[in-house]
Amino acid sequence: MDLQTDKPHSARIYDYLLGGKDNYPADQDAAAKVEQAVPNARKVARANRDFMHRAARFAAESGIGQFLDIGTGIPTAPNLHQVVQEVNPAAHIVYVDNDPLVLAHARALMTGTPEGRTGYINADLTAPDTILSAPALTDTLDPEVPTALSLIAIAHFVPGDTIYAAVATLLDALAPGSYLAMTHLTAEIDPEGVAGTVATYTQSGIGMQPRSRNEFEQFFTGLDLVEPGIVPLHHWRPRMDQPAAYDHTLPLYAAVARKPARA
Questions:
Q1: CA–CA distance, 219 with 10 (Å, rounded to integer)
Q2: What is the biggest distance separating any 2 CA atoms in the chain, rounded to whole angstroms?
Q3: Where are the beta strands (DSSP E) in 138-213?
Q4: What was the pLDDT predicted at 247?
Q5: Which of 11, 120, 229, 242 fits a 20 to 30 Å CA distance from 151?
Q6: Is the CB of residue 259 less than 8 Å from the CB of residue 179?
Q7: Among residues 120, 64, 122, 109, which one has the least CA distance to residue 82?
Q8: Residues sharing a CB contact under 8 Å with residue 10, sequence separation 6 or more, in sequence order
């Protein structure tokens, strides 16, 4: 397995910013440049992770028992399955990522409750048909049952407009009553810091495209947004015990939306 440790990878940079240890000098150098552009980059990473926890718990408490998490990243406890299986021990979760290092740690992502079930797919968001046809998905999730699709800080790593079709393909395959939880980098909150972040990733060979609120809203076409709608990351149902809830410069939008029932 070629981990390409001499090249930075978005999952490993994120791991470093979260305080993890599964990263390498190339990732650490890139992360240091990101921190130069956005001094609170570690807080952004933590707040993004906290949103994932809140959104996943919301979906589980709303009756969702199946979860598809694309762009999983390196395991950082609590992982999504640990959050939702606290609510519903029988929940089924499928993780998807394309980083070989994440694959190497996939065993940690598949240690859930005896009643539940987890799976892992080595695939890319831009190839949704590969994800939807993977045995780990078809054996773990029931296509007739609502599923929560989690796309946390992943779509901005796909420049161009093809990302909209990829997300639409995934949503089309989900049953009515399913949810989409998503965060996305934007230059509308911290233009200078985000410009520096994009430059760092681009120079490291990692494509990145921040999007405006209107561009982010396009991902939710045909869905019913859950209150409070599309908001800055830290404004989506914040918990006041999370320090990032008070920060006003976290440059990501966040939203959760529900796929309506058939007419």
A1: 22
A2: 53
A3: 148-152, 179-185
A4: 60
A5: 242
A6: yes
A7: 109
A8: 99, 157, 201, 206
